Amino acid sequence: MRNSPIIRRARQAHPPPPVPADYVAEVDLEYARWSELVGLIGMLSSDELLAPGYFRDPDWSVKDLVAHLRAWLAEAASQLASVAARSYQPQDVDIDARNAEALEVARRESWESVWTGATMARAQMLQAWFSLREPSESANRWVRKAGAEHYGEHLDRLREWVGELVEGRTRPPSTDWDS
Q1: Rounded to an integer, what distance in angstroms lies between the CA atom of residue 21 and that of residue 28?
Q2: What whole-number distance in Å separates Cα of residue 151 and Cα of residue 32?
Q3: Lowest mean pLDDT among 10-24, 55-69, 153-167
Q4: 124 — phi, psi (to 5°)?
Q5: Which residues pair with 60 in a beta bridge?
Q6: Residue 109: CB partners within 8 Å, gap ≥ 6?
Q7: Residue 55 bridge partners (DSSP)
Q8: Partners of residue 90 on adjacent β-strands
Q9: Which residue from 171, 130, 161, 177 is spatially nearest to 51, judged by alpha carbons?
Q10: Quick check: 155 and 82 in contact, CB under 8 A?
């Protein structure tokens, strides 16, 4: 996967288009954190993307993480469309149920499908956000919930997990015979 065309295209993506001055810092943070996620994911092989261990109980792989992000990016895009249509009604979202649903759906999909869906959901969220006629605290809350702030919640563990997987490639096989 390290040389995957999907990851190469994501790395070559250009920064988001110019946005209102009110959003520049948040857009820069979203872009920087997304870029770091893409870079870390790009270091992994196809098998490593599917290896359980990113989280335990329930076991999550990097693919599961990306499916989780995809679900929240898609939700944010939908909520931003409601904000733009001036029909937004705040409501509580059952986070655990939403996460479980995203994982269940992803388990039946290929890595390529999950990754493509996540990048498309991100593009839709950004497009919806950038098209708003005026700043909105509701919109900003959803962008933070699904975007930069959300990525930030996962980056530390992703860095650790990628490090563990990469280290595992060069670690000599363990033998119990030496004890």
Answers
A1: 11
A2: 10
A3: 10-24
A4: -65, -40
A5: 55
A6: 67, 117
A7: 60
A8: none
A9: 161
A10: no
